Amino acid sequence: MSYSQNKKPINIWLPFLLAAVLAFGMSIGFALRPAQSVVAKGNQPAKHLEELIRYIDAKYVDEVDSDELAEKAIKSILKELDPHSNYISPEQIAAVNEELDGNFEGVGIQFIIQDDTIYIVDAIPEGPARAAGVRAGDKMIMIEDSMVAGIGLKSEDVIKRLKGEKNTTVNIKIKRAGQKDLLPFSITRDRIPIYSVDAGYMLNDETGYIKVNRFSATTSQEFVSKLDEFEKEGMKDLVIDLRQNPGGYLNAATSILNQLFGDKKLLVYTEGTHYNKNEYKSSGRNFHKIEDIVLLIDEGSASASEILAGAIQDWDRGTIIGRRSFGKGLVQEQYDLSNGGALRLTVARYYTPSGRSIQKPYTEGRSSYNDETYDRFKSGELSSQDSIHIGDTTKYYTSKNRVVYGGGGITPDVFIPIDKLIDNGYYAESVGYVAPYVYHHLDKHRANYKKYKTIKAFSENVTISDKMLNDFAKYAKSEGVKMVQGDFEKAKKELALLIKANIARQFFGTEGFFQMLNEDDVMIKEALKALK
């Protein structure tokens, strides 16, 4: 999906506002369990479709690919259903499943390609590349006997060369700052974890913070592991950040909710025309004592994220802070096809404990459905609480008799408007060059930051100077970003924060990145205020 140039103000938030829209058909609200055999109410239509493809294959004047015809027929049929029923091709299925299974087989390197150079963003903890000695900031020059720098490779080309079956070996050569010669590494591929918890640390002496990016097979385990750490540090209250979390496995959400309720409660229930009502309840046996809870959501929080928010809001278990969530209340079940692909079919709706369905309307077609997030921006909803659209005016009641609504997401208890930088044209154009700039900066100045052994020391001692910001502006200009002095001045504070966070990522990983961003985060400040 794309927008014309005269809609540029929204572009700075496209990675955030539209991530859910672009990914939902493949990555959210997946099956409660593997699909069982499917029994149709009558197989005559299926026979007609099969007969048609066979007849075309046998009689058509030109050569045809019957498998390709079948795929197109499936996609056309699914377009007549809801926006989340989807076909996944055999080529896509492995990548889609990997993200939700929480692991893949490879070397465990995160990278970006900038100026035709492969920069290592991070070597994943517990991965074979990290164990072999590969570091963040290294440049990958060769894979096996082939040069991979300066030849125009794309990310997918690099991934294909690095990924492979467990226990196989790949040889790479690295250029490291301060080293004259290329460094050779022989890396034995292994199973690599894909973490769904980006960060977990103490905001203060009593408040833990957990950032969850999706709900995968390993999310509950990762979440509980963080709670174990917090308990040793004296945690009483908890902030859960689900902003831009597109969802995932429903069971992962209910497992986390089980840790947040000390007694038996209905958490969510599902029901469909051909799908019996199924209730999910907490066991009453949580392992951690958590007093107050704050949940952060926005327009990109969907599916399993909304299950968490709905249960906490309906039972008045905590405070929901942010903006109205996406509004995805449909449950998909996966059916594996004989060609190696899969069908993810919507089989039920889910309902919050008070009986709310939070699914937003989709009767006007997929295009209108996908544009709904942008429509919120145009209507002013992202900036003003008074503009929040209530899709269903039916009143539902929380455990403390507060009125809540369904029909299009979870409306927060405390509204936080979107950042005003959404209207800053210079920020919109330049923000994408922050990470590449940081790599160029660290090529010359990495030693300046190595002395900070903790994120606390880094935070307290590292300041992004006006000189660095002007250097960044020059770099962005060299990449084609037009300097608009007034907009640049207004964006300097946020750009400085992003530069600092990206430097922190190189030395303290994703957790360091979020700790820096959160230092000046409006929702985090409001969360701490609510907990007081």
Total beta-strand segments: 21
- Mean pLDDT equals 87
Main sheet overview: 6 strands, antiparallel
The end-to-end span amounts to: 42 Å
How much of the sequence lies in strands comes to 15-25%
Radius of gyration, rounded?
25 Å
Number of helices: 19
Query: Which assembly state applies to the chains in this document?
Result: single chain
Structural class category: alpha+beta
Shape field: globular
Helix content class: 25-40%
Which regions have little confidence, pLDDT < 50, spanning 5+ residues?
1-43
Can you characterise this structure?
Strands 3, 4, 5, 6, 7 and 8 form a six-stranded antiparallel sheet that branches. This protein has a six-stranded mixed sheet with strand order 10-11-12-15-16-21, sandwiched between helices. Strands 1, 13, 14, 17 and 18 form a five-stranded antiparallel sheet that branches. The radius of gyration is 25 Å and the shape is globular. It is of the alpha+beta class and 532 residues long. It is 38% helix and 21% strand. The two termini are 42 Å apart. Among the domains are: 105-193, Pdz3 Domain (Roll), CATH 2.30.42.10; 422-527, no CATH class. Helix 10 links the parallel strand 15 and strand 16 (319-322). 39% of the residues are buried. The longest helix has 34 residues, at 485-518. Mean pLDDT is 87; it is low at 1-43.
